[in-house]
Amino acid sequence: MQRIGVFVCWCGSNIAATVDVKQVAETLKSEPGVVFAADYQYMCSEAGQNLIKDAIRDHKLTGVVICSCSPRMHEATFRKTAAAAGLNPYMVEIANIREQCSWIHKDKAVATEKAIILGRAAIAKVHLNAPLTPGESPVTKRALVIGGGIAGIQTALDIAEAGFPVDIVEKQPTIGGKMAQLDKTFPTLDCAACILTPKMVDAAQHENIHIYAYSEVEEVKGFVGNFSVTIRKKARMVDPVKCTGCGLCTEKCPMKKVPNEFNLGMNNRSAIYIPFAQAVPKVATIDPAYCIKMKTGKCGLCSTVCEAGAIDYTQQDELVEEQYGAIVVATGYNPIKLDQFDEFAYAQSPDVITSLEFERLTNAAGPTAGTLLRPSDGKHPHTIVFVQCVGSRCDGGKGKSYCSKICCMYTAKHAMLTREKYPDTDVYVFYIDVRTPGKNFDEFYRRAVEEYGVHYIKGMVGKVAPQADGTLLVQGSDLIENRQLRLNADLVVLAAAIEPDASARPLATKLTASMDTNDFFTEAHPKLRPVESPTAGIFLSGACQGPKDIPETVSQASAAAAKVIGLLVKDKLKGNPCVAHSNEMMCNGCSSCEKVCPYGAITYVDKEFRMPDRTTAIRRVASVNPAVCQGCGACTVACPSGAMDLNGFSNSQIMAEVDAICK
Amino acid sequence: MQVNEKEFKPLIVAFCCNWCSYAGADLSGTNRLNYPANVKIIRVPCSCRVNPMFVLRAFQRGADGVILCGCHPGDCHYTTGNYYTRRRMTLLFSMLDYLGIERDRTRVEWVSAAEGAKFAATMNDFVATVTRLGENKRLEDLRCKKQ
Amino acid sequence: MQEAMIRRAKELLADGTVNRVLGWQRGEFVYDVTPAVFASPDELDASFVYNDFCGANLSKYLVAESRKEGKVLAFLKPCDTYSLNQLTAEHRVVRENIYAIGLPCEGKADVEALKAAGAAGITGIADGGDTFTVHTLYGDQTVAKADALAERCANCKSKQCVTYDELLGENGAVQNSHRFDMVEQLENMTADERYAFWQGELSRCIRCNACRNACPACTCEKCVFDNPQSGIANTAPADSFEEKLFHIIRAFHVAGRCTDCGECSRVCPQHIPLHLLNRKFIKDINELYGPYQAGADVAARGPLTDFTFEDCEPSVVHERGVN
Amino acid sequence: MSDTKRLKEQILAISGVNPRKCMKCGKCSGACPAYDEMEYHPHQFVAMVEDGRIDQLLASDSLWMCLSCFACVERCPRQVEPAHLIEGVRLALIRQQNQNHLHAEDIPPKLNDALPQQAIVSAYRKYSK
Amino acid sequence: MTYSYYPGCTLKNKARELDDYARRAAAKLGVTMEELPEWQCCGGVYPIAKDEIATKLSSVRALMAARDAGQDLLTLCSACHHVLKRVNHDLQTDEAVQTKVNNYLAPEQPYTGETKVIHYLEMLRDVVGFENLKKQVVNPLKGMKIAPYYGCLLLRPSAVLAMDDPENPAIMEDFIKAIGATPVAYPYRNECCGGYVAMEAPEYACKRCNAINASAASFGAEAIITACPLCMYNLRQNAADPLPVYYFTQLLARALGVEEDEA
Predict the structure, then answer these.
(1) In chain D, what are the domains?
(2) Chain A: touching chains (3 or more CB pairs < 8 Å)
(3) Ranges A317-326, A447-456, A475-484, B4-13: which has the least confidence
């Protein structure tokens, strides 16, 4: 039997004016188990708290019921009070007789009666309360960043600067991501490589950062503070330690007809390659799909010319297991495929290109060395048409229902740069809306129109018809002029919608992190926790969470880093003790609870049990990780046998409250 | 209890999730929005914590109506809890209805932490509905009846 | 069929594929068959039986049997295979320890119905397509299947074995059954009529627990009704509330997992149509969340451990049907 | 209900089009091969029906210029189906008494030896009730 | 392979060759075309309005006859194909149409779009196979540069017609390659010829046909092929300086060596 103390607060006149607090205290004093009852003007005041502390000590209370304001107001306060008097804080229950009683009822008799019932319910609950101690789990002071684009690099640098080791896993042979492929960045027009490559070098040289390039996450186990991750280091066929990045092998390689993905297939590379000059790590990689040696066993030229002896055709994928306290997802985006939109003739003419291809065509390290030339005949285009919203804001199956956010700005940039470099070109931009929220963004777009004379046409292109003379007849509507425009263009640039990288969905499954229907990672709260996944210990950086431009990506990357640092500085994580737990003797191992758990907190183990007949049996039973469980209770109802219960809100506690209320 | 014998006052048990509806109930108190005192609230972490057993238990012990309140779908503090609530309670209520138990004795309502007015209005409406139905006879346990 | 089954069982015992056989054992009367495990060819010869009275769903026995040493041979009718799949999905059986032989099934006889149709002193039964030929002490008697099939067989949902290691005979197909007709009839009654109907049915409950004990979805290590800690444990239908509580909770616990095998109604000594409770849930699930057949697919996610953002609100109950 | 409103609802019902889905991008009119023949263009049909300016459409020759080639239906990013809406407006007119656009007696002079039956049947179906 | 075949009215009259060559080629390819008994005109245009039922019934009768024969329904004329395919789709997806049509026709077994409607070209691609067709060609049309003309009816709306990529189709090009000729890619192959206005406003149709014809010619086409009698008429009558226009079945028959009557 508990020894319960009841404390009725007047809250000045807030409660006392409508509830007869004396009568409440008196009535509740005769409830079974209640050994002390008192009322006081302000129970939350220091004097009030002292009253509670004294009573706990003097009357050897094992449970406390406070009839006062909402537990959302002062539950934490009174728990601390109890703890200060040596009582487990979870032995305190609050009866809400202010917000849910005195403030809504006018009749004193009615309100008093209700207050007594609420007090009884709290007493009934306390009878079944058990002392709870928040679980503690150690924190591995190391972070993993998945994806080595600008988002991943920035997050890694910030975490590393705070003094924690960070690993970056990047599936490509080099870090750098999409930004490495860009020419200039809006709205400042500074060169992407000039601001990105120093960061890449910083990441490579930072003592706290280790880069797993050409690697992928294979498996993730564990939970916040204690992740165990298996990383697959894909075979490069080149020893990254020995390789000096001299590039001789790439020159001598006889297989030179491999579509160069870095230039989006607009030129070729060799079968052994370094993606681009500033690659980090600057190490060659053999493409086994094209390498003559790998395919036929003959050749081996690269091995012959490599003075460092770095080539190893027998290299195998390698699996490494590392421990992390936090994981940051920074898997980025890709432009969508355009096969569903061939009214723009992307598949029918080489002179219809995507905006990312345009970046490469204007980049000094691109296939045309930075001179804007038509892919079909290498001639300088004189009329260029940009088409916005290709696949964005599409309802139905064809495209993406969302706005891709970055296209308006990069198209303005492309248009402006084209006009600046080639004043003899006519540049048209077909748009539905020009969306430029962002610092100096609208000014930038206006400059394209006002200073650079870019023709912005409100309307959409309906068809691009390649002509026999090599031009492209662009037919679109000009809604302002109420006419159908037909332009003979030399080059058409499509602002393709962007979508999350294809690796994101399988990764989310491994991380038990949630995603929306577009495969963007979901944040724990769109406003209050925008860089965290609902799964504890998983953080989001960059476009994997939604379309973002570079400034926004870097901000979010640093925000995610701050959250990671906040986690890693802790030596131990203290959990919420009101978590689910499973009675192993009753567990069926049926997985119902696991399926409804939003946090992946439930796992199953095969355990040996002594059976009543002295035999042993192996049974599959659920096990809740208290560090991951957030205590929603979904599992408790999914469990048919009642093996799963929730601390602080147990089946018997809630039923006792029901009984007390209905008595 | 001193209840006027002539005037039937139904006993209503309201299960409210801690994050939205309980806060909504607090808000209706803060704004002094009245609803009958025969509504008694039980705080649960999430509407998905409510086991059908609790609902039946309440009726057994003498409740005349049971209402569950949770965050609006999409706003669950635990992201998905109320979606499970929605399915479970739909099926439970349908079963009660199938057994001929008055369907208006049970209800699920989504009330956010900002919807104090909605909370009070919902409770007023529910109490009125259950009052019209009268005493719970079809799911009562005579042993639990007050003498 | 019985001979073929015994022959195959002996072969599998002989070649070591299995070390025991789960089947049906003859009892005092021909219709009095009980599930049993046979460990040797001799035992099979002595008492293994298979006939149109073998209605019992053997899958539930596999919860215990599949955890024992060695592989067990189980003869499963289409209904039983759905249950096995569901049990596999819930990790209640060790599927690798089971060698399942799927049997075709054209419906099992309800001995009570046969007796009602005038058959006395029954000594045997043979399937004659649309009829059963009943051998009795007084000569053969032909009874139309329509009059003698168990309810669940008359409204058969599927003649397809959905999991097996081998089949004896041809696999059947999913049926276009009328199994929800009675539920619909009830739904179309007024609330008062429904209440009266169920009051009449459930008040006969003697809380013998046969329904629970036969149900292949009720395999909890410890049943809530046997657990004093659960708050709903009880052993007798003390009053009308207890009767309802037991059946509502039981139906709810198996909702989304019940394969509609009909064992509950088959074993009820009071002839309470308990399947109508389970079918109500199945019908609601099909209508509200899309067609779902428990046990049809091991990988499927059960409707109560799943949701969509567009699910209907519980108020749908207030909006449809008859009040 | 006003006549305009009733007419609008009739058009929306028979066409199955929801003009509110339109985001006014003009792709329909950018795709339309009949653009130059029309006084009101596909995107205007959508906007004007939504706006209740249906009388102007009914009085316009544009009704008869749409070729029902479904280029706009195919390319609309919001699945608005302007061609179906234009058909709805057209039907709203020809379903009225004496509003057939093509009369049986008009046909013989237009015939020539090579003209396939299909041309007559389809034009008649399209322009008359 | 045996199909129920729906020729449509024009193929019995002004476009006899389209039908005749198709039958000869099919015979050569081992495909049996069983003309539906007592078929009725499909109406020539698909009735777009949601409330049109009567105008869809003739199509449903044809679809139902094929279902009752247990065969897929083969079509040839683009317009008929378009109408039948879309009406069938309505019966598959639109419950209101389904109910009304079945109430009206009261068939023994309600019709809910079970029949598969397949165009002759699809049959060549998906059943005979272009590789297989190529092997049976005895008279390859070597060196002939042919512009495929799809028009609008075969391709759009693609969600329903589902024949090929609506903007960059390949089926006719592949067909042309299979009979040994060279396909000419040009952007107006899926632009409308103005069929519905051919009779009423020939000058308007002229504009459309000129654009198509000129585009094909500019890319070096020597001939145009089509599957539609109305497109054929329009391109021949209403284009200035028209290229020769053939039904695709005629060139198919030619390649298979069955163009000339054997009798």
Answers:
(1) 3-96 (1.10.1060.10), 102-129 (no CATH)
(2) B, C, D, E
(3) B4-13
CB contact, 8 Å: C305 with chain A? yes
Query: Smallest Cβ distance to C304: which of B88, B96, B108?
Result: B88
Q: Give the chain C residue nearest A516 (alpha carbons).
A: C309
Low-confidence ranges of chain C (pLDDT < 70): 235, 320-323
Q: Matching CATH topology for A143-234+317-332+501-568 and A333-499? A: yes
Domain chopping of chain A, boundaries: 4-128, 143-234+317-332+501-568, 248-305, 333-499, 580-647
* pLDDT, tens digit, 9 for 90 and up, residues B58-91: 999 999 999 999 999 987 888 889 999 999 999 9
Q: For residues A562-595, b (16+ Cβ closer than 10 Å) or e, as one string?
A: bbbbebbeeeebebbbbbbbbbbebbbbbbbbbb
Contact A617 C224 (CB under 8 A): no
At least 3 CB pairs under 8 A between chains E and C: no
Residue A501: per-residue pLDDT: 96
Region E121-129: mean pLDDT is: 96
Of residues B1, B48, B52, nearest to A113 (C-beta):
B1
Cα separation, A542 vs A378, in Å, equals 36
Q: What is the mean pLDDT of residues A479-498?
A: 97
Nearest CB to A460; choose among D25, D35, D36? D25
DSSP alpha helix (H) spans, B61-145? 81-98, 116-133
Domains of chain E: 2-120 (1.20.1050.140), 138-256 (3.40.50.11810)
Per-residue pLDDT reduced to its tens digit, B87-129: 999 999 999 999 999 999 999 999 988 888 999 999 999 999 9
pLDDT by residue (tens digit) across A232-278? 999 999 999 999 999 999 999 999 999 999 999 999 999 999 999 99
Domain A580-647, CATH among 3.40.50.1860, 3.30.70.3270, 1.10.645.10, 3.10.350.10? 3.30.70.3270
Q: Do residues D71 and E152 make contact, with C-beta atoms less than 8 angstroms apart?
A: yes
User: Dihedral of the CA atoms A499, A500, A503, A505 (nearest 10)?
Assistant: -110
The alpha-carbon gap from B2 to the nearest alpha carbon of chain C, in Å, equals 27
- Asked if D touches C (at least 3 Cβ pairs < 8 angstroms), the answer reads no
Cβ contacts (< 8 Å) between A467 and chain E: which residues? 187, 218
Task: Tell me how far apart the alpha carbons of residues A207 and A218 are, in angstroms, rounded to a whole number.
Answer: 25
pLDDT at A507 over 80: yes
* CATH code, A143-234+317-332+501-568: 3.50.50.60
**B75: nearest CA in chain A?**
A525
What residues have CB less than 8 Å from A214, skipping those under 6 apart? A170, A171, A172, A173, A233, A234, A236, A285
Sheet holding C131-136, edge to edge: C122-127, C131-136, C139-144
Interface test with D, best of E45, E48, E77, E247 (most D CBs within 10 A): E48
* B91 to C252: CB separation less than 8 angstroms, yes or no: yes
pLDDT at res. D1:
64
Instruction: Yes or no: say if A586 and A179 are a contact pair by the CB < 8 Å rule.
Output: no
Nearest chain A alpha carbon to B48: A634
| CATH number, domain B12-133, options 3.90.215.10, 3.40.50.960, 2.40.30.10, 3.40.718.10 | 3.40.50.960
Contact A466 E187 (CB under 8 A): yes
pLDDT digits (tens, 9 = 90+) for A11-57: 999 999 999 999 999 999 999 999 999 999 999 999 999 999 999 99
- Look at residue A304 and tell me whether its pLDDT is greater than 80: yes
Q: Confidence band (pLDDT; 50, 70, 90) for E263?
A: very low
Contacts of A103 in chain B (CB under 8 A): 29-30, 32
Burial pattern B65-91, b for ≥16 Cβ within 10 A else e, equals bbbbbbbebeebbbbbbbbbbbbbbbb
Q: What's the mean per-residue pLDDT of chain E?
A: 94
